[in-house]
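As promised in the previous annual report, we have extended the structural survey to additional targets. Below is the entry for Alpha/beta fold hydrolase.
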Amino acid sequence: MAHRMLSGWISLFLLFLSPLAYAQPLQPQEGDWRPAEFRFHTGETRNDLRLHYYTLGDRSKPAVLLLHGTNQPVSALLADGFGGELFGPGQPLDVAKHFIIIPESIGSGKSSKPSDGLRTQFPHYNYDDMVLAQYRLVTEALGIKHLRLVMGYSMGGMHTWLWGQKYPDMMDALVPMASQPNALSGRNWMLRRMLIESIKRDPAWKNGDYQTQPPALQTANIMFSIATTGGTLAYQSKAPTRELADKLVDARLAAPVTSDANDFIYIWNSSADYNAMSGLERIKAPMLVINAADDERNPVEIGSLEPALKTVKQASLFLIPASAETSGHGTMMSARFYRTALGEFLAKAPSHQ
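The corresponding structure token record, generated without further manual editing, is:
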């Protein structure tokens, strides 16, 4: 009897402990890939390019390529709201069943970027260069010939559209999030242009030869973030008075500046010639587009996404309704809104491993 009681207490203890174990921070492996030569779309070549990357899970498992947003740290993809909803036991991208690859794109994180020393002499890269570097990392450095899934957020979502048409036999499934295949236009591009101009017109920028970061870097970044990420209903809920709105702004102004002005200009300008519309018919893999109805950068009311989806052989849209709990363009960082839809989509996607 005592033995059975002890066994029961141990089972109860383990049941209590297991959620805590799942809540522990994910610890990825890190690495650098340095190709002997890399040719940019401009024709420039470098023999010192560095692409930093993170991996989770066992390399023998089906591989998932996860692509980050503009200026987004990889830690955001490992946080509870995203990785905590997708990478755990029984979740759609369970790290026990998948090998997850998260590269830091050219110009981001620990990958090569202007602030490494070249400043404005760094090659002016675009999204095609970023995707090519990702492809070479996956195939040459990691030796992976097929991917279970390519999935990305914002800039990474736009990269996902390009992956599907540039390497159509490479993956089983595609999930671009918070993105569209259309060339940038309207408010989306106008605000990106203003980001760049705000810094370049700051006398402290000195044509990229500054010693301290230009003040416009911080204010332009905060302005763009408030204007294009956060959600109208969510901001109104968080700041229903001017006093509360001022507190939100003051908190951002008080935060340290962690970006570099040249890096900032380069990465935002890298989207200037993006246009995935012409190659949509080349996409073969089933695609699930996940967008938010209150996405400020990809407004649903312009109606440009639906015609594009009709060009893709197997594509569907999962649109997250706007609410005080969503955060506009940033909604994808709360995977609880689409975790079930993603799991159902992957369960139906054929495997060609």
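Confidence is low (pLDDT under 50) at residues 1-24. The radius of gyration is 21 Å. These points will be discussed at the next consortium meeting with the crystallography subgroup.
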